[in-house]
Amino acid sequence: MPGNNGGQRAEFTARYFVESPDPLPKVPDIIAGEQSSGTFLELPGETSELKQRARARVTRIDPQAPAAPA
Description:
The protein is mostly helical and about 70 residues long. It has helices at about 25-35, 50-55. The radius of gyration is 16 Å and the shape is elongated.
C-alpha cells in the first residue's frame, strides 16, 4: 500500500509565531487541534481514539517577548 510505513506515524515540524490574548498554555493546544483535522464536522467512522491518535502534538513552546506596537 503506498504510503504505508508499518504503522509508524510520519512526523514533521512546523514553527508558529503567535500573539494571542489567550493564556500561552492554551494557544498551542488550539492550533494543534485545528491543524489536525480538515473539518469542523464529524465524519462517519471518526472516533475519539482516531482523533487522538492522528492529532498534532506540541513538542516545545519557546515564549518570546511581545512584539512592539506598530
